[in-house]
Amino acid sequence: LKELNSNREKEPYKSALNFFNDDSELYKEEISSLEKLIQEAQKRLEQRINSLSPDDLRAGSNLGLNDLIQQKSLREWEKLASKALNNQNISEDLSKLINSNKLDDLLKSIKFIN
User: Fold this and answer.
1) Which residues form a coiled coil (predicted)?
2) Which of 59, 4, 49 is nearest to 29 (CA)?
């Protein structure tokens, strides 16, 4: 945990720690390496898919989990934000969303992309 504490403001530690409420969870899950930290962060991200916050999406992107989010999410705004964070072209997705008349999904997508 010494390595973790000294690197908590650096990537990928910072993004992985986004999925933990506090250090007690690290002890509970017996996290003792960066590899275990990232594995547990991925597990927690998967559990939150379809209710991800913008911070969760950014952290997931920083951890290279955009494909996972895009494959598993049922929420258009999560998929769009994930693609945008991964520098993928989202113009076709936005056009489909605009033409679908799903205003709520469109507004959430815009909010998440900002």
Assistant:
1) 24-51
2) 4
What pTM was estimated for this model as a whole?
Answer: 0.87
> In what helix (H) or strand (E) does residue 106 lie, and over which residues does it extend?
helix 103-113
Do 95 and 76 touch, CB atoms closer than 8 A?
no
Q: Which residues of the chain are under the pLDDT cut of 70?
A: 114
SS3 string, 38-94, reads: HHHHHHHHHHHCCCCCHHHHHHHHHCCCHHHHHHHCCCHHHHHHHHHHCCCCCHHHH
**pLDDT per residue as tens digits for the range 61-83:** 999 999 999 999 999 889 999 99
What is the structure's pLDDT at 3? 84
Buried b or exposed e, range 43-67, using 16+ CB within 10 angstroms? ebbeebbeebeeebbbbbbbbebbe
